[in-house]
């Protein structure tokens, strides 16, 4: 099931190795919002997260954009002042990713998608030939495979 297979897996975004991404020629990252950058319903942004984002931008010269299917947050959120964001983006539609690439100014093969959504982020990014990083705090291999199997069964039934 290669279309659901991530290029890389991480328990959290902090595990992602910027040096390795830079070596792989990654110049832009499309970041999911809910449960990737922000825990669902979380109100504040941690200093660690801001440091992580700034590090990617300055140290690795990797451009970042948030692409989320959610509505924009109602409360002020410092992340949105730091990096561009597309909300209600309609992932996994190709248009959602192409809009992001246009803003980043990067090609598909030099852009990574980081997210916790198997369809929205992994499949969406993979089918455009982008590098995909699956972020899941509860990641275990059997769990993931079971999840994909159930998903495929669901899709086939539709
Ligand atoms: Mg998500």
UniProtKB/TrEMBL annotation:
Name assigned to this protein: YqeG family HAD IIIA-type phosphatase
GO molecular function, one term: phosphatidylglycerophosphatase activity
Source species taxonomy: Bacteria, Bacillati, Bacillota, Bacilli, Bacillales
Pfam families, per the entry: Hydrolase
Annotated organism of origin: Paenibacillus sedimenti
């Amino acid at each position: 099931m290669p279309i659901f297979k991530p290029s890389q897996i991480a328990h959290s975004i902090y595990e992602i190795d910027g040096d390795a991404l830079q070596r792989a020629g990654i110049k832009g990252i499309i970041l999911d919002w809910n449960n990737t950058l922000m825990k669902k319903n979380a109100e504040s942004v941690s200093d660690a997260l801001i440091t992580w984002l700034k590090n990617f931008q300055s140290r690795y010269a990797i451009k970042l954009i948030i692409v989320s299917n959610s509505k924009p947050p109602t409360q002020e959120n410092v992340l949105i002042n730091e990096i561009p964001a597309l909300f209600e983006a309609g992932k996994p539609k190709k248009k959602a990713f192409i809009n992001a690439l246009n803003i980043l100014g990067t090609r598909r093969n030099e852009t990574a998608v980081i997210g916790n959504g198997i369809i929205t982020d992994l499949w969406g990014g993979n089918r455009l030939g982008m590098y995909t990083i699956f972020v899941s705090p509860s990641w275990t291999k059997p769990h993931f495979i079971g999840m994909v199997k159930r998903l495929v069964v669901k899709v086939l039934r539709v």
